[in-house]
Amino acid sequence: MNPSQLFNSFLEEGQILTDKALEQRYHHIWHMDEPLKALCVLLPKNTEQVSKIMKVCYQNDLPVVTHGGLTNLVGSTETIGNEVVISTERLNRIEEIDKASRTITVQSGVILENIHNATEEEGLLFPLNFGARGSAQIGGIVSTNAGGLRVLKYGMTRQLVLGLEAVTVEGTVISSMKKIIKDNSAYDLKQLFIGSEGTLGIITKVILKLEELPKSRNAAFIGFDNYDAVVTFLKYCDSKLAGKLSGFELIWKNSYVQMTSVNESVRPPLPYDYNYYVLIESLGGNQFNDQNEFQNLLEQALEEELILDAVMANSQSDVEWFFRIREDVNNLVDFMEHDQHFDISLPIPYIGSYIEERYNSLRKIKGVNQVYAFGHVADGNIHFMVGKSNLSTELKKRIDHCIYDGLQKIGGSVSAEHGIGLHKKDYLHLCRNEEEINLMRLLKTTMDPKGLLNPRKIL
After folding, report:
1. Which domains are seen in the chain, by residue range?
2. Which residues pair with 312 in a beta bridge?
3. Can you spell out the DSSP letters for 384-450?
4. Radius of gyration from C-alpha coordinates of the chain
5. What is the arithmetic mean of pLDDT over 177-189?
6. Side-by-side strand order, sheet with 381-388
7. What is the rounded distance in angstroms from the CA atom of residue 37 to the CA atom of residue 348?
8. How far is the CA of 184 from the CAs of 19, 180, 187, 209, 267, in angstroms?
9. Cα distance between residue 193 and residue 206, in whole Å
10. Is residue 23 classed exposed, middle or buried when 0-12, 13-18 and 19+ CB atoms within 10 A define those classes?
11. Which one, of 186, 190, 133, lies nearest residue 165 by Cα?
């Protein structure tokens, strides 16, 4: 029997994709030229169907990989051909927006940008925000505990999830769907599924915490000559803006030059005269007052020589222009022969020297053509993008070790927000000790004794 026939009794014909239909599928939006390898792709419409799928897979020892928006960068959705792929694209209903509780209940296949649009229509804000918001689905976002541009003010995804529903490997539905913020009734089981990349269960529904929609949004680009001045200005902004500071993005000079020299839509707000460029954002309740406060902060910082130069957004279209520069990494990737991405986390005081050392070391590696760095400096998260001339395993490992090998000594992490997946599991020991990894293995074995959920990933 073809494995796909096991699901005919409860899925419609259009919910089961096999053979030639798989040629139109892929495992990542940046690898659409590579057809998906899988036994079949299943398109469930609700939690009940996901549960039935998992019961069949468990009884027949079929490995399962979950596909959402396919924007991950660590191989979490890669397959080798013997897996059943569950796509959450039809789990796309926004079930409820509760204005009194300030929550939104959504199925796991809802795209982040659709959540933004729906909540803003109700005068509310789901603050999680990053460049792939037009493709990324909330199930994948939760399963990787994504971060983004506003972690400084609102925290990671984990801090924004109030309730969660997931299906275990044997098909049991675990429903922790509560709208309450405080609940200390024993173990918080939803945390097992947040950040576990589909290796412990399949997320089917979540309740997300919302905020009141800000009435003001201000942004500016600022120039610096040294990293210590960046850190000083971060503390300065945080104290002067009294909780309104929502974003503090750092871009190294060569990255800024490349990001702003590609086309007119991303022209440079500041000249190429500085070593570091910071994009700051504040959100508040009164546009007139907040804009004056923001402008006064910049003027005072210039007078006190805390910063070298600044340009403030004069309109919301300017704000969008500023963030388009930071978010459109295609302006870097499109000019690389081959690319390698990194998402590291390290204590803020070490960032300047650590990144400078990596820049110098990477440029000495034969086969490395470009090195770019930028990131969420306020939460210690820096992204590296390395352009290289070939896809050899030897070159990849040399680059990996150059980026990762110093992190353990300073208490850093090989993954700040992208997860571990397939690509980083060989380096997990650099940021987790033996006892932690052993406990993770015990948890995985307990919750997935046959190893069917997203096999080969993380551990």
Report:
1. 3-87 (3.30.43.10), 94-212 (3.30.465.10), 216-327 (3.30.70.2190), 336-440 (3.30.70.2740)
2. 220
3. EEEEES---HHHHHHHHHHHHTTHHHHT-BSBSSS--TTTSGGGGGGTS-HHHHHHHHHHHHHH-TT
4. 23
5. 96
6. 309-312, 216-224, 276-284, 245-252, 368-376, 381-388, 338-345
7. 41
8. 48, 11, 8, 17, 50
9. 11
10. exposed
11. 190
Distance, in Å, from the CA atom of 398 to the CA atom of 100, rounded to the nearest integer, reads 53
Distance CA 235, CA 352 (A): 16
Mean pLDDT of the chain: 96
Q: Cα–Cα distance between 431 and 404 in angstroms, integer?
A: 10
Q: Tokens for 428, please give them.
A: 């997990």
d(CA 426, CA 343): 15
Q: Any idea what DSSP says for residue 250?
A: E
Buried b (16+ CB within 10 A) or exposed e, 195-234: bbbbbbbbbbbbbbbbeeebebbbbbbbbbeebebbbebb
Letter for the amino acid at 98? D
The type of residue at 206 is V
CA distance 50 to 174: 12
Distance between CA atoms of residues 187 and 155, nearest Å: 21
Residue 31, pLDDT above cutoff 80? no
In 3-state terms the chain splits into helix, strand, coil percentages (rounded to 5) of 35, 25, 40
352-382: pLDDT as tens digits: 999 999 999 999 999 999 999 999 999 999 9
Which pair of tokens denotes residue 310? 């600044």
Dihedral sign, Cα of residue 156, residue 158, residue 159, residue 160: positive
Residue pLDDT, tens place only, 142-163: 999 999 999 999 999 999 999 9
Residues 38, 83 contacting (CB under 8 angstroms): yes
Q: Which residue, chain included where needed, has tokens 């229509």?
A: 121
355 Cβ neighbours under 8 A, 6+ residues apart: 252, 373, 382
